[in-house]
Amino acid sequence: MFYRPVFHRGKNVVLGMLVPYLPKSPTVTFQRFGFHWSSTYNPTRTLHTGMPLMAKLLTVDEIFARRSLQDYLRKLETDYGECLKPVNNMTDQGGEEELRAKRTQMSRLAPLIKALETKQKEMAETESLLKDEDPDLRELAHLEREACLNDIHDIRQTILGLLIPEEEIDQSDLVLEVTAGVGGQEAMLFTAEIFDMYQGFAQHHGWAFDVLEHMTNEIGFHGLRHASASISGPQSYKRMKFEAGVHRVQRVPKTEKQGRMHTSTMTVVVLPQPTEISFTINPKDLKIETKRASGAGGQHVNTTDSAVRIVHLPTGVVSECQEGRSQIKNKEKAMKVLRAKLYSMKLEVETSKRCNARKVQIGTKARSEKIRTYNFAQDRITDHRLGKSLHSVGDFLLGEELLEEMNSSLEDFSNQEMLMDLLGEKDY
Known about the structure:
By secondary structure, the protein is α+β, with helices and mostly antiparallel strands. It is 41% helix and 23% strand. The protein has helices at 60-64, 67-84, 93-129, 135-163, 184-205, 236-240, 299-303, 327-354, 393-396, 401-423, and strands spanning 2-8, 11-18, 44-46, 52-54, 173-180, 208-216, 224-232, 245-251, 262-273, 286-291, 307-312, 317-321, 370-375, 380-383, 388-391. A hairpin with a 7-residue loop joins strand 6 (208-216) and strand 7.
């Protein structure tokens, strides 16, 4: 079991006992797609250029009604037939891997497509019985029709989940960074609350949460200038990547005597954490410095060279760590952050070429956008990318069900965008 320590206003308060979150295993394995979609949901999205764009989150049935999807499925079936033909003199290894990937995808899709066609035929036969003169037969046909509708919806949903391409970095762990922005003391207090929220979110999912940096304010009040943490666990980056960006708080600070509303900001950065095998750094490109740690911690912190600063010379990227007393452990943590930063820079260059039209911003690109507002007076949290609002700021900051709900909506929308890009529909 986990106990969640919350460092807020100088007190180490144990909120309660948390049981690790264990999601139920579905009978069919597929990506999340449209679990909470509604045909009337019509959010406002914002591009990274700041241009508002009205669009709605489509239902599964609305997507299947599109001709582009039907054409795409027919093309996949044709390609699958070609893939099954024996290929002579296959010398291109890349072509062989692509062929194997197509076969694997269609071996999972083909039975579902056939099952969908069968159910649709059953549906047509059942609807003809609804006009029968026998009332008992009509009632039986009505029940059969409802069962067919549910089966068709489930099969369609599974097909869409299989069509969405999986991104390799979604299986990565991550490095989380939070930094106070505009608003002085209030911004630092808000940064501490957000950092605690993500610690609660990690515990809600049963992920490991390892603090790498924790720079508090030196004046005396209990806020947070900057902090970073390593988060590892199943789908941790996939679930956290939508949190990157500028978070804004609107509330009356306790130090405000005239009751005026203040607006403060803080920034969240989510960096995928690569493995040493998938991403290597040449040691010759590093400049490693040691120094005495500053801040609270007693004589040991101030009299030993435990703080580590690493500079990546080709890019100028810097990573520092002085959390622990051990110079070796601080170096390991600093290298972990540096590797994540360099890996994120590499991914940003690659993905910007093929995903520059993506409307739901994730990763480091979101840092220039105010993605979410926490309004305490109205007890409201609004995500500006979706135009979606939830209530109960206190419960949201626990990092449990409400944050999970917001993340799920963002993932649904991101899945829809990836699918529409795959179908060649830029405006929908």
